[in-house]
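User:
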Amino acid sequence: MPNLEHIKQLALIGSTASGKTSLAIKAAQHLDAHILSLDSLSIYKEIDIVSAKPTPEERQGIKHFGIDCIYPNEDFDVTTFIGLYHEVYRRCQEEKKNLVIVGGTSFYLKMLLEGVSELPFISEEIKNETNKYLLDLPKTYTWLLDLDPEHMSKIKSNDSYRIEKALNIYLETGQIPSEYFKTYPPQPVITASLPIYQIEWKREILRERIALRTKIMVENGLIDEICGLEKKYSRTPHCMKAIGIKETLAYLDGIYSKNEMIEKITTNTARLAKRQKTFNSSQFENVTKGSVRELEKILL
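Assistant: Predicted structure:
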């Protein structure tokens, strides 16, 4: 990895609908920077309206990474974003640009700062064995919980993705996951100082912003977008359970009226915003917090 001091970097975090996208673009223009989006929905192609990703016009010529990278039926995890970070950092060095990291999925920023452990190579034989175990997920989870309560107590009993990873590690290495991760501790990806700025709104005002954005999404064709996604990819992909998608599918099933769908999306998005704020406040230190206007004065 090249010397991280060669380019200037900053991170901009905040709840959904807080105005991160617009401020990030202004900051990128001012700093002559590329943008890396840390968003678990904008990474998908064809998921445009419900993800509230910036349109090509809104990006104002700023190169964005982490947007439109994979299709809805493709999987990704935190290592995908780590790979994206390495890619955009290399591009920034080559093109003499700085970097603005922005997104509502702050967990990925935390992982860039703390790192993740390198996972072992999983043979086809072990993958096949793991798939047999996963046929009875409750039984397999209980077995792994008995083997490694330290690690498995952090995983929900229906989280097949993380259960599969834990099972692969144990079957391939013979080590329970908690022992494996102690043997192979995480290595931070970003080692230089990274200023972090957090946008804050009063709860009731943020709720109004979320409600307005939801109505605009519907007016811009949210329902048609979800219909197209369902027809092309079915409801199986993990992203089809995202806020905005699941409520629209319920509307299409006749469970909600259109107004009820809008209210449900607004309420669930507001709950997400609350969780995001709690996470950001507890996971990052030395964060500069303020309104969009206050942070704009600092950044620009």
